[in-house]
Amino acid sequence: MREIILGTKVECTDGEAGEITHLVVDPADQEVSYYVVKEKAKPHADRMVPAHFVVDSTPELITLSCTTAKMGEMAPFSFEVAVQTMSTSSGAGAYERRLASRTYIVDKKNVPEGELDFSLHSKVEATDGTVGRVDGVLTSEDGKITHLLMRKGHAWGQKDVVIPRSLFDYAHGGTVFLTASKDEVGEQLALKAAWGHTPSEEELEEA
């Protein structure tokens, strides 16, 4: 079982590379397909690192099999797009007024079609309201996501909360939606104390 925490430092073969800001997930396979790493070096871009580059992962450090230069060549997580509005007119006859077109710069996420991304800003919604924000995920050794992890800033105070994949409904617009109510999540999943280590499958079943 692996514990992947958003905000964790990332190290390449030649030194510290940055930190995890987002995870991109393939909902069909329930796997993390990309780790988004904010570069330590300027221009501090967010790079999409394919999951196969991750050779080790702990709550304190994620290790990659590439150099920092190689990571810097990977696709950016977001990019700017120019959007132009159409010129329009209002009124009629002598009162007609033409409105000039304008160009706006907007940020677009470079997420593959059909995949989802979430970050420390992603909310977790039960069927009857917000319960917290995403802190990370737990995965099996073969990379399958087994649980969502909330460690702080949630409805149960200082307890760690793990939410099994079976309670995921869907994710949309930066929010993860559950099939359970607040009370159901609290009764089943609130832990008495933080583990202090990556939990085993037996510990998760007892939680």
Walkthrough of the structure:
The strands form five sheets. Strands 2, 3, 4, 5, 6, 7 and 12 form a seven-stranded mixed beta sheet that branches. A four-stranded antiparallel beta sheet has the order 1-15-16-17. It is built from three helices and 19 strands. By secondary structure, the protein is mostly beta strands.
Short structural description:
The chain is built from 3 helices and 19 strands. With 207 residues, it is mostly beta strands. A hairpin with a 2-residue loop joins β13 and β14 (129-133).
What order do the helices and strands come in, and which of them pair?
Layout lengths: L1 E4 L3 E4 L2 E12 L4 E9 L6 E5 L3 E4 L3 E4 L3 H5 L5 E7 L3 E3 L6 E3 L3 E7 L6 E4 L3 E4 L2 E5 L2 E4 L5 E6 L10 E4 L3 E5 L2 E4 L3 H8 L11 H6 L1
Parallel strand pairs: 2-7, 13-19
Antiparallel strand pairs: 1-15, 2-3, 3-4, 3-12, 4-5, 6-7, 8-11, 9-10, 13-14, 15-16, 16-17, 18-19
Question: What attributes does this structure have?
Answer:
single chain, 207 residues, mainly beta, seven-stranded mixed beta sheet, four-stranded antiparallel beta sheet, 3 helices, 19 strands
Number of strands: 19
Low-confidence runs? 190-198
Total DSSP helices = 3
Assign an overall shape: globular
Class per helix and strand makeup: mainly beta
Question: Assembly type of the shown chains?
Answer: single chain
Task: Note the main sheet.
Answer: 7 strands, mixed
End-to-end separation in angstroms reads 15 Å
Task: Round the Cα radius of gyration to an integer and report it.
Answer: 21 Å
Mean pLDDT equals 80
Strand content: over 45%
Fraction of residues in helices?
A: under 10%
Sketch the topology as an H/E string, one letter per element. EEEEEEEHEEEEEEEEEEEEHH
